[in-house]
């Protein structure tokens, strides 16, 4: 590792032996540093650049007034790289929705408003978001029948909407405390397709976080209803059309469920989206 790869010097001291782990995920561990501070420490396979990118993107979001986790500095510990930020109390929005489903309707409307805030943020970050490319999306449409694939492909090619995108905007990356929601984990953020950003959120609502779980009919219908409410509210506050978002949603579902055998859940969702898009196209 070169000197340029190292995080910048920071004021928050780290102990020689980290203790107090309060969370872990696929990319990082969270440690309580005391005095209202935590350390998000990336796993060993991640380089300093990943950590610095998230730091820069989160600081830019903070400067734009977005409701995000407040980060303060970058640190290195035992060859791993991390961010020091404020402790965020509360629970993930996903967990609240699972335990108290009657609160889902208000929470998803609030999330739609926050996502729109992201898309309105000044273009101070030009780094591209980590998103699916148009060519990749078009290549995924082969699982669809030809008229459906042609319709989705035409919409994706003709409609573009670039903005500051979170990249993985879902309830697991949103923290609720005393009615306030803060957004976490901006490592995928940057300038990208706003319609795809919303579509990725809708795929979370429709399918959950897993990429191969089969949903029973009742849960599938409820999740689709939540997605319809989210999309309607986002379009209402943003003034945007649903059509390009739905086209990206089709591609996102094809991406997430690629290779899943006998995938009744994806086929049922894609059938409903097919009817929706053809109705919007007046066919």
Protein model, in words:
There is one protein chain. The chain is of the alpha+beta class and 283 residues long. 45% of the residues lie in helices and 17% in strands. It has nine helices and ten strands. Helix 3 (104-120) packs across helix 7 (217-238) and helix 6 packs across helix 8. The longest helix is centred in the last third of the chain and has 22 residues, at 217-238. The protein is globular.
Strand content: 15-25%
The CATH class label of the largest domain is Alpha Beta
User: How would you spell out the order of helices and strands?
Assistant: EEEHEEEHHHHEEEEHHHH
Radius of gyration: 20 Å
Average pLDDT number: 90
Shape: globular
Q: What is the fold named in CATH at topology level of the largest domain?
A: Aminoglycoside 3'-phosphotransferase, Chain: A, domain 2
Distance, first to last CA: 58 Å
Q: What structural class results from the helix and strand content? A: alpha+beta
Q: CATH-wise, what's the superfamily of the largest domain?
A: Aminoglycoside phosphotransferase (APH), C-terminal lobe
- Compute the number of structural domains: 2
SS field, number of helical segments: 9
Q: What characterizes the major β-sheet? A: 5 strands, antiparallel
Helix content: 40-55%
Q: Tell me the CATH architecture of the largest domain.
A: Alpha-Beta Complex
Number of strands: 10
Q: Which regions have little confidence, pLDDT < 50, spanning 5+ residues?
A: 1-10
Strand line-up of the largest beta sheet: 1-2-3-5-4
């Amino acid at each position: 590792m070169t000197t340029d790869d190292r995080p910048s010097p920071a004021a928050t001291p780290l102990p020689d032996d980290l203790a107090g782990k309060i969370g872990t995920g696929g990319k990082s561990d969270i440690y309580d540093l005391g005095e209202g501070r935590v350390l998000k420490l990336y796993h060993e396979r991640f380089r300093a650049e990943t950590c610095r990118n998230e730091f820069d993107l989160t600081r830019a979001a903070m400067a734009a007034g977005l409701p995000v986790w407040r980060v303060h500095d970058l640190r290195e510990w035992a060859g791993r790289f991390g961010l020091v930020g404020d402790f965020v109390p509360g629970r993930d929005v996903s967990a609240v929705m699972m335990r108290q489903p009657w609160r889902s309707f208000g929470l998803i409307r609030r999330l739609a408003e926050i996502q729109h805030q992201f898309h309105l943020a000044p273009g101070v970050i030009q780094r591209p978001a980590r998103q699916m490319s148009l060519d990749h999306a078009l290549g995924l449409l082969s699982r669809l029948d030809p008229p459906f694939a042609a319709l989705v492909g035409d919409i994706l090619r003709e409609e573009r909407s670039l903005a500051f995108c979170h990249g993985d905007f879902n309830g697991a990356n949103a923290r609720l405390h005393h009615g306030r929601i803060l957004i976490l984990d901006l490592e995928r953020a940057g300038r990208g397709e706003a319609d795809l950003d919303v579509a990725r959120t809708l795929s979370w609502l429709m399918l959950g976080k897993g990429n191969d779980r089969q949903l029973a009919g009742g849960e599938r219908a409820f999740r689709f209803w939540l997605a319809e409410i989210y999309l309607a509210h986002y379009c209402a506050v943003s003034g945007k059309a649903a059509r390009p978002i739905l086209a990206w949603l089709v591609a996102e579902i094809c991406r997430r469920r690629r290779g899943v055998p006998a995938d009744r859940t994806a086929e049922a969702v894609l059938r409903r989206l097919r009817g929706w898009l053809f109705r919007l196209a007046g066919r």
